[in-house]
Write a structure and sequence with these properties.
The complex is a heterodimer of chains A (244) and B (79). Chain A is mainly alpha-helical. Chain A has helices spanning 12-29, 39-46, 52-70, 78-95, 106-127, 142-151, 159-179, 182-193, 198-204, 209-229, 234-242.
Chain lengths: 244, 79
């Protein structure tokens, strides 16, 4: 603990608080070694009290890496967006520094956090006005039914094949209706038909991405098992449906 | 649920790719650092970590995150 002259005339808890503050400022300003840093140095310099130079170096590297990583997803103001993501990522990294286990390079771990931060934000922005409760234009509305009918009446396939395909499709629709829960069906529809990201669907259904993945995994397994029970080989069926 | 032929095909593809031992998004997130570092070292991450490879093939969001992470780290490596 810092034992400088300022502490000498103070007593009790006041003395401890002021000494800690002085100590904090002293460490914060202390010169960090020249980067690049080892994993141990990163952890030491970014643990409280954080070292300004190390924080700035981390921010610089995040910005450097995030720009090429995110540019294809950002349609305007890339620079500002990347700066914001780097800043948010930085806060998250500092908050979680104690959880870094050193199983990878520090920057791999840190960049992983920042990348997720950036892509999550982009997905939120992209889908912010879409509610999975009000999905339109899918195969379940009138327009969709027309597409469905047209698929089998287009003349691209023989009548026999069209009938076989139609029967197969109806069988799968029945399986979905009978086997899947309402949540599984709703999530599958949003993700597979409307291509809404799993994390957005999860958020709107009051859960998280991992639980949503598990919900869909269970749905896929149920359907796979049922196909097996009915003696249907999904690969063969897929090939048959792809014939035209 | 009324579905188009294309969606049924997509669904069958997804069903077909379902495995007993597949990992979820959290497990993939935990292992992605090793996967990306093997890739950066020039070795086959796909061979070394087939379950991660399999998850990335199936999960678009994890795949996007992996690709962005790889791109970011390659840029930093170049300096």
């Amino acid at each position: 603990m810092y034992r400088g002259p300022a502490c000498l005339f103070l007593y009790g808890s006041k003395r401890i608080i002021i000494c800690n503050m002085l100590n904090w400022f002293k460490n914060k300003k202390e010169e960090a070694p020249e980067p690049p840093y080892s994993n141990e140095q990163w952890v030491q310099l970014l643990s409280k009290p954080t070292n300004d130079r190390a924080v700035e170096e981390l921010r610089r590297l995040l910005v450097l890496g995030l720009k090429p990583a995110l540019y294809k997803y950002v349609d305007r103001e890339l620079e500002q967006f990347v700066e914001d993501v780097a800043q948010d990522g930085l806060i998250k990294i500092l908050d979680n520094i104690a959880t870094f286990r050193g199983e990878s390079q520090f920057m791999t771990w840190a960049m992983k956090i920042a990348v997720r931060e950036g892509l999550t934000e982009l997905r939120r922005k992209r889908w912010q006005n879409i509610s999975i409760e009000n999905l339109k234009g899918g195969p379940e509305d009138e327009q969709g039914k027309e597409i469905f009918s047209d698929t089998f009446a287009s003349g691209d396939v023989s009548p026999e094949l069209a009938t076989a395909q139609k029967m197969a499709v109806e069988k799968i629709e029945k399986m979905i209706d009978e086997l899947l829960t309402e949540r599984q069906s709703k999530a599958m529809r949003a993700i597979l038909i409307h291509n809404i990201p799993i994390s957005i669907v999860a958020e709107q259904m009051g859960t998280n991405r991992n639980n949503m993945y598990k919900l869909l995994y269970d749905a896929r397994k149920k359907l796979k098992n049922e196909l097996e029970v009915q003696g249907i080989d999904p690969e063969k069926l897929l090939n048959e449906l792809s014939e035209s | 649920m009324k579905l188009t032929l294309d969606i049924i095909k997509k669904m069958l593809g997804v069903i077909l790719a379902t495995r007993e031992d597949e990992i979820d998004c959290d497990e993939c997130y935990d292992r992605i650092e090793s996967f990306v570092e093997i890739k950066l070292s020039g070795k086959s991450a796909e061979e070394a970590m087939p379950l991660v490879k399999d998850h990335l093939k199936r999960c678009q969001e994890c795949r996007q995150e992996y690709e962005a992470l790889l791109e970011a780290l390659q840029t930093i490596k170049k300096g």
